[in-house]
Amino acid sequence: MRTIPITAAASCALLLLISACASGGDAEPGKGGKADAPLTAYMDALYDIDYQKVHTEEENLIASCMQEAGFEYIPREISSADYGDDDETFEFTEDYAAREGYGYSSPEPESDDAEPVDPNADYLAAMSESERAAYELALWGEQDEPIDDEAEYEWDWTKGGCSGKASNEAWAASPMAAFEDPAYADLNEQISRLYDEAFADPKIAAVDATWSACMNEAGYDFAQVLDANNSFADQYSALWQAADPEAGTDKAAEAALREREVATAVADARCQKEAGYDETLMEVVIAYEKEFVDQHKAELDAWVGQYATAPKASK
User: Fold this and answer.
1) In this predicted structure, what is the pLDDT of residue 63?
2) CB-based contacts of 172: which residues, under 8 Å, 6+ apart?
């Protein structure tokens, strides 16, 4: 089955936060940016994938599998426009917060692009109902239904038809596979604990206290920087879970929540800047990462060397 262990997911989330804090992108060595974060560099190597190429391979694998099953399948064309700019840097500023809040309620960008046309539409339209059902079964397989809405659901690629088979093969060298490898489970667990320890460092606690005092003056009661963002993650989750299947979310409640989100995020960005949160976080994380890499360099080299083999994006 394809699942990322919770420790891996936590590590990835923290790495994303750290990358965002290094807002200057790959800053010069010695300037406290990503260039000085050696463990983050290992993770970046795992994620440096040419997604367009992998998805194209996946489509071609689906076509071969469907042909073997007795059906035609025209691979969908994958455009580079379908993917964002990997080199785009992110900085959590007051201007960003005023536009996007924490990103939970950001409106979808307007696009002039027409809806993609399914190249197999005519082929499917000519099928009988039973032929269409057989086609869909070959393409998508038949997954086990979750026992209830609260049950954790794991997608099993072996039951996913040609789509599942192609996905598993095309993404075999992806970070997902790296995090699933039991040979590196202990290393992955140690990375997760590393960031837990970094965020518990007295320097982070001190800057959290400064930030908290600033937020308190603005009318907000949060103890740690992560608490503000997490509070809205919880609120939006509750809003979406309560949504009516037909009517969707409560629009008035959603609008009010967005207004609170943006106001809180603006204050958060200002207080982070005043407290020097980004700089302190990177200073602490870099120190922890350097010590960890010194102790585990051979394991990290082996891990990344084994899995950072998927097609790389052009620079």
Assistant:
1) 97
2) none
